[in-house]
Amino acid sequence: DVAADVPVADVVVCHHVAFNVAAIVPFLQALNDHAQCRVVLELPMTHPLSNMSPLWKKFWDLDRPTTPTAQQLADITSALGFDAHLDVWPDETWGQRVSLPMEDRVRFARIRLCLSADRDAEVAAALLKDLDATPREVCTLWWDV
After folding, report:
1. Whole-angstrom distance between the N-terminal and C-terminal Cα of the chain?
2. 44-97 pLDDT per residue, tens
3. How far apart are CA 142 and CA 39, in angstroms?
4. CA-CA distance, 109 to 106, in Å (whole number)?
């Protein structure tokens, strides 16, 4: 939506927004059109909230979608004719950048899970048990223009 307002640059960088883009092909094309040398996207390999999937299963017996993925984005990028490279790496700081009190973590999860406040104790117990604290995989997707 803002492509016409953004100047051309040597390197165009997109950081953690790709999962929120509804029309990904025009978005990728706009990134490419605005870069003189390289396009770089950084994003997690799976949706940023996919770590909550076990909680959706526990509280609602819902299997959350496992797609789209960064690999699928790389495939689309290659199908557009861009010589895309996908470098995958562990984000060692995942879950450690901001130290939230447990009560705030519970509130955030409860709201995301569409649960009422009377379920806070259950949510807290599930957070302590179910959320994966291992580093998440992120990637750098890039190509030269």
Report:
1. 22
2. 999 989 989 999 999 999 999 999 999 999 999 999 999 999 999 998 876 666
3. 5
4. 5
The span from the CA of 135 to the CA of 18, in Å, is 20
pTM for this prediction: 0.85
CA distances from 21 to 56, 64, 121, 137 (A): 23, 19, 35, 20
E strand intervals along 21-91? 35-44, 85-91
**What is the rounded CA–CA span in Å between residue 27 and residue 125?**
40
Q: In the β-sheet with 35-44, what is the strand arrangement from edge to edge? A: 9-15, 35-44, 136-144, 85-91
Find out whether 58 and 34 touch, Cβ atoms under 8 Å.
no
Q: What is the dihedral of CA 57, 63, 64, 65, to 10 degrees?
A: 160
CA separation for the pair 88, 111 (Å, rounded):
31
From CA 44, how far away is CA 92, in angstroms rounded?
A: 12
Domain 3-144's class? alpha beta
